[in-house]
Amino acid sequence: MRVLGIETSCDETGVAVVDGERGLLSHALYSQVALHAEYGGVVPELASRDHIRKLLPLVRQALDEAGTVPSDLSGVAYTAGPGLLGALLVGAGVARSLAWAWGLPAVAVHHMEGHLLAPMLDADPPDYPFVALLVSGGHTMLVDVQGLGRYRILGESLDDAAGEAFDKTAKLLGLGYPGGPALAKQAEHGDPGRFHFPRPMTDRPGLDFSFSGLKTRALTALRDVHSEQDRADVARAFEEAVVDTLVIKCLRAVEDTGAARLVVAGGVGANRRLRVRLREAAEARDVSVHYPALEFCTDNGAMIALAGMLHLQRGEAEDLTIQARARWGLAV
């Protein structure tokens, strides 16, 4: 089985071809970071228009690189949500139209399920069951995964997602967009003992998150900041607080479920300090930690193609209706 996957949920246009026997055959990605940088964040209308410009050329590129023609395909998968509605409609409309024109089934994929399954692209994928930490600019959640489509939300952010908090705090520090990687880079030069930020919601039972208070703490600390070193110290304290909170909650989820495997996916999953801390903490508890390759931590078409293929293998497909959902729960 061979599937074309299309991702347009936010500001990356991703197209890929995945084969059931040969794995990932091609992966084409266009990022709109430069387009949105001058605004300090994603402008939804501009994102939609750029997806329109870039999507079909990327489809041709992905098919050519995979040595694939439409008659080789078994289906077309697309991100149906959650995300920016206009951006989603571009991808969904193109994908559904291609599937109709080529006489193929179409599969609507949940964006976060794509992230959750991204480590399956690896040559040595994790087995079910596992606990997944999905941590990105739009979502932070812990999920008990028993199998494909069998997901139970253990906890999620009650306000800002971790990636969103990174970006907003980076803006307070005067850093560029996207803010998360810029803040992490500045934090490398920070003194970990200069400031101490709280580890929100770790002093009470449960697996929910809250990161909005850390932005307020950073703003308070910045009132007495005057030098580049001071800003690096604030960045370090903020990053340490977020990472510690994520690690504490992950370990609690693993303990509560008895899971032997932890999957970490989403853009913040590329954070170096988070990876080091989780590896150390998990190894001490005989828990294996699995990540997608760095290029598949952020939004991409490969994870959508893979998720679509797995659903098609179970005989699942969509009718002619074009589905796009700005909000869409993951638990089934």
UniProtKB/TrEMBL annotation:
The protein's required cofactors: Fe(2+)
Chemical reaction(s) catalysed: L-threonylcarbamoyladenylate + adenosine(37) in tRNA = N(6)-L-threonylcarbamoyladenosine(37) in tRNA + AMP + H(+)
Give the enzyme's EC designation.
2.3.1.234
The GO terms describing molecular function are:
iron ion binding; tRNA N(6)-L-threonylcarbamoyladenine synthase activity
Which of UniProt's keywords are assigned here?
Acyltransferase, Cytoplasm, Iron, Metal-binding, Transferase, tRNA processing
The positions annotated for binding Fe cation are H111, H115, D299
Cofactor remark: Binds 1 Fe(2+) ion per subunit.
Residues annotated for substrate binding in this entry: L134, V135, S136, G137, G138, D167, G180, N271
Main localization is: cytoplasm
Give the top-rank taxon of the lineage listed in the UniProt record for this protein.
Bacteria
Query: What cellular-component terms does GO give this entry?
Result: cytoplasm
Query: Any keyword tRNA processing?
Result: yes
Q: PROSITE patterns, alphabetically?
A: GLYCOPROTEASE (PS01016)
- Which cell locations does it reside in? Cytoplasm
Gcp-like domain residues are: 24-305
What GO biological process terms are annotated to this protein in UniProt? tRNA threonylcarbamoyladenosine modification
Q: Which InterPro entries match?
A: ATPase_NBD, Gcp-like_dom, KAE1/TsaD, Peptidase_M22_CS, TsaD
> What is the protein's known function?
Required for the formation of a threonylcarbamoyl group on adenosine at position 37 (t(6)A37) in tRNAs that read codons beginning with adenine. Is involved in the transfer of the threonylcarbamoyl moiety of threonylcarbamoyl-AMP (TC-AMP) to the N6 group of A37, together with TsaE and TsaB. TsaD likely plays a direct catalytic role in this reaction.
Q: Which family does it belong to?
A: Belongs to the KAE1 / TsaD family.
Q: What is this protein called?
A: tRNA N6-adenosine threonylcarbamoyltransferase
The protein's organism comes out as Thioalkalivibrio denitrificans
